[in-house]
Every structure is written in C-alpha cells, then in structure tokens.
Write a structure and sequence with these properties.
Layout: H1 4-26, E1 29-30, E2 33-35, E3 39-42, E4 46-49, E5 54-63, E6 68-70, E7 83-86, E8 92-97, E9 102-104, E10 113-117, E11 119-127, E12 136-144, E13 146-147, E14 156-166
C-alpha cells in the first residue's frame, strides 16, 4: 500500500521523466547540425582536403523567429559578440568572414544594435598545412548571446563536429 509521501514521490518522478524526455526531443543533434531552442547551426559534416589545399567552408546559422544575436563586431563594446572558431589545427584557419549584420532599434535600448537575425552565413577559409594522411575530427565552436525584443538569455557556446579527411591522392 502506497503512503501519501510515496505517491507524491512517484508523481514527481513521472513529471521529471516527461520533462527530460521533452528536452531530448527538442534538442536533437545530427552530424551536420546542432540545435538549441533559439538557433540551428549547420555546416558540411565532412571536408576532403589534400596537400596544402585551401578551402572555404560555409557555416549557416538559422535563428528562431523573433530572436537575434549580436554580430561579431557589435556597436557597443559591452555586448557579447558572435564568435566562430575551429578546435585544434590542422587545418589552420586563415580567415573568418562574418557578414556585417543589420542595424535595429529595440524597445529595451536607446541605442541601435547591429545583429544577425533569420539566416546568417559565416565563411571560414582553412588551409591543410602539415596535413595528416589520416582523417581527424574537429569541432566548430560558436559563442553567442540569444536575445528577443524583450529579453537576453545567458551567452551560450555550442559545438558542431566536422571531419577532415585526406583525398585519395594524399594517402
């Protein structure tokens, strides 16, 4: 026979299970895509390079409707810039081309802000210096602060795996 405390514990356990299952369903991770509740980051999950190849990889950010993130160079120094990096070399990052973003006025600020909203593409040029003849996995790391016209959430960092593979002629 369940006592009152046991029944309450059972209900709490069921509710916690439902919350955890909901979180897992809302936060799927695919090899070429990383989702948060406000942003989807996607890029090619595999790049083939040989020798000292140089290539440009486009990383796409899709923001949920009504949300924005600061550009890489926000107008105000105190704002959190969006930053995309690649873990450990090789390949070596030669250049990151951030789009300029758009300037908006929001009710919460007297100053205009430069932000990314909707879909933004960041182009990263990499060179395969000191190339290995083996495949190696690296991670994109995106740091950003999602905001709506009413609130800003804490800054976040998400990671997305990318596999660099040597071409057949480089093996």
């Amino acid at each position: 026979m369940l006592r009152r405390d046991d029944n309450a514990l059972f209900r709490c356990t069921v509710v916690l299970g439902i919350v955890l299952l909901s979180w897992v369903l809302v936060h799927p991770v695919a090899s070429a895509e990383r989702r948060t509740e406000r942003l989807v980051m996607s890029a090619s999950d595999s790049v083939v390079m040989s020798g000292d190849d140089t290539t440009t990889i486009s990383v796409t950010l899709k923001l949920a409707s009504g949300w924005h993130i600061n550009t890489n160079r926000p107008i105000q120094d105190y704002l959190i810039p969006t930053e995309l990096t690649l873990s450990d070399a090789p390949p070596e990052v030669l250049d990151v081309q951030y789009p300029p973003g758009e300037t908006y006025s929001f009710a919460f600020s007297k100053e205009e802000l430069r932000v990314y909203s909707d879909t933004t593409v960041i182009d990263v040029t990499v060179q395969n210096r000191n190339a290995s003849s083996r495949a190696h996995e690296r991670h994109w790391k995106l740091t950003f602060q999602p905001c709506s016209d009413r609130q800003c959430l804490r800054p976040k960092t998400i990671r997305l795996p990318i596999d660099f593979r040597p071409s057949a002629d480089a093996r």
